[in-house]
Design brief:
single chain; 8 strands
Length: 543
């Protein structure tokens, strides 16, 4: 028995040790997973943003909302069937009082007084108080004793709109609303891709700027150490040491600023990607990026780029959908002047007045055709038409301004691309020259032919050249992302958005290139040039 307890104790201790080791391993793995930082390439960051960015998700929900509006408005033109049922039970005592005008609880009539020449037991038809129960019309020839205290009525009626001037135009307008939401989704998607690219490149350039600042600080530290050694040897004055210290301490704040900018840029990208703050990571960065700052010069024809932007930008297609929707609203409002015709039909089942048996019910079919036409509304419809026409004109003016906005954005991005490309070309050579100048200044100082100020100036010039080149690289890539967004080349679509794409996108309804107006119709050109119309006056430009 003693040996049994000894063996049992050994196994128990072994099990406790195993659980302790497992718990320690689990804690260690949890700590490592908590401190693990997600790493993203540019493509991975874009995919994450497309999955989790709230702005894009809201744009997708807006498409679904407009699809619900289509179903709601379309239901007005489709058959609607309603079933109605009424069941009523009246106490026989109360029914007798209502029929004969006698208050059964007091034995007196309900009349307000005795009228000369009438019986005191008769109820006054005029002065009798209104009953609190629905007054069933007594069937002729049926006394209160014979009337049933239960009555019910069941009907199933269907209603169908035959014609009006508003519903069908409103339905067409809802399709354009859906199209507008779809193009807004695509515009948001393009903007999101450009934003992720810019924020990703901002992290990369801030990381490189930290390296530049660290190199400058290390160089100044070595310069300070060299001057201190020379001062102790008695070959340079104390002033040289002070200059080196001042230069070093002036450079350290720039390094601190660069490190802070690097952290902030990571937080900004994490928010765009939809990443939450993780308390267990503490001050650790929310993410890391993998990649370098690319430079791929692109040959661009500005005229072709502007035309491509007009044809492909979802921004303009959304404005076109708004114009077409407002046109339908004008037609729907004017359609109120037209007649409205509806038909109603169905069956009805009414209980018998003498008993509640289902076999004695009265049943049959009924049909009803109704029509209405406004004759005189004191200008109410006319006022609504004027408002809708003004809104229609506003959408067309907005469309024309959006076209000019697209042209402006493309030209601005093109100009920024040229500027940054020229800066990169100039600074690549400048960095080489500044590096060589710093090397010569240090060599002359070591040989005793130069001064420390030359070395410090050469270091500042090299730092400026490196920083300018990095900023030019960032500016070029961010301008390229903006140029692709402005021209509609940021992404390609194959119309596979889970049944969200409008059928009209496969036709010329949303062609927004040159030569068409806000409604998609060919522009009318005059031999005398464009005309400007304001109110009732019209002026034409001279040749």
């Amino acid at each position: 028995m003693r040996k049994f307890f000894i063996v049992l104790g050994i196994f128990t201790a072994f099990g406790v040790l195993c659980r302790s080791s497992d718990a320690g391993t689990g804690a260690g793995s949890g700590a490592s997973s908590a401190t693990r930082v997600p790493t993203f390439t540019l493509d991975q960051a874009i995919l994450m943003a497309l999955q989790q960015n709230p702005t894009l998700l809201n744009a997708e929900q807006e498409i679904k909302r407009t699809k619900g509006v289509i179903i709601q408005v379309r239901a007005q033109a489709l058959p609607q069937v309603n079933a109605n049922a009424e069941f009523e039970w009246i106490d026989p005592n109360l029914s007798g009082a209502r029929i004969f005008g006698t208050n059964t609880s007091t034995g007196t009539t309900t009349g307000g007084g005795t009228t000369p020449g009438t019986s005191t037991g008769a109820a006054s038809v005029v002065d009798s108080p209104r009953s609190q129960v629905a007054d069933p019309s007594p069937t002729p020839g049926i006394t209160a004793a014979e009337a049933s205290d239960v009555s019910y009525n069941i009907s199933v009626l269907g209603r169908q709109l035959i014609f009006n001037g508003t519903t069908f135009n409103q339905i067409r307008g809802t399709f354009f609303q859906r199209d507008s939401a779809y193009f807004a989704f695509r515009n948001t998607l393009d903007q999101l891709i450009a934003t992720v690219k810019t924020q990703f490149y901002q992290i990369v350039v801030n990381r490189e700027l930290i390296k530049v600042q660290e190199q400058s600080v290390h160089l100044l530290e070595s310069q300070l150490k060299d001057q201190q050694n020379r001062f102790e040897a008695g070959t340079v004055p104390r002033f040289n040491v002070l200059q080196a210290e001042v230069a070093l301490y002036n450079q350290i704040p720039q390094l601190i600023t660069a490190q802070n900018n690097y952290r902030i840029s990571k937080l900004t990208l994490a928010k765009t990607l939809g990443l939450y703050f993780e308390p267990r990571r503490g001050e650790n960065p929310p993410l890391e990026v993998v990649g370098e700052m690319p430079y791929a010069p692109r040959t661009i024809n500005l005229a072709d780029a502007i035309e491509m932007g007009k044809e492909r930008r979802p921004f303009l297609k959304q404005a076109r959908a708004n114009v077409l929707n407002q046109l339908q609203q004008v037609r729907a409002t004017a359609g109120q002047w037209l007649p409205t015709i509806t038909t109603t039909g169905g069956g009805e089942w009414v209980s018998s007045p003498v008993n509640s048996s289902w076999h004695d019910i009265s049943k049959g079919w009924l049909a009803l055709v109704q029509g209405s036409l406004p004759i005189w509304d004191s200008g109410a419809i006319a006022g609504q038409v004027i408002q809708q026409r003004a809104l229609f004109s506003e959408t067309k003016i907005t469309y024309d301004d959006d076209v000019r906005q697209v042209e402006l954005e493309i030209q601005q991005a093109y100009s920024n691309l040229q500027q940054n490309q020229e800066l990169i070309t100039s600074q690549e050579k400048n960095v080489e020259l500044a590096d060589e100048a710093l090397r010569l200044a240090k060599a002359r100082l070591d040989a005793g032919a130069g001064v420390q100020l030359d070395v410090l100036n050469a270091q500042v010039q090299l730092l400026t050249a490196q920083s300018t080149r990095l900023q030019a690289l960032f500016g070029y890539n961010s301008s390229l992302a903006e140029f692709d967004r402005a021209t509609g080349a940021q992404s390609t679509y194959q119309e596979m958005f889970a049944d969200l794409t409008p059928h009209a996108t496969k036709t010329k309804t949303y062609y927004t290139g040159s030569g068409v107006d806000a409604e998609g119709k060919p522009k009318q050109t005059d031999e005398d040039g464009p005309r400007i119309r304001t109110g009732r006056s019209r002026t034409s430009s001279s040749k």
